[in-house]
Amino acid sequence: MSSIQILANLIQMADMMQRELKLQHLTTSDKQVLSAIVLLSHDEGNNAHLNDLKKHQLVSDIPLPSLYKSLKHLIQVSLIKKVGSERSGIYQLRKI
Question: Do 70 and 81 meet the contact criterion of CB atoms below 8 Å apart?
Answer without folding.
Answer: no
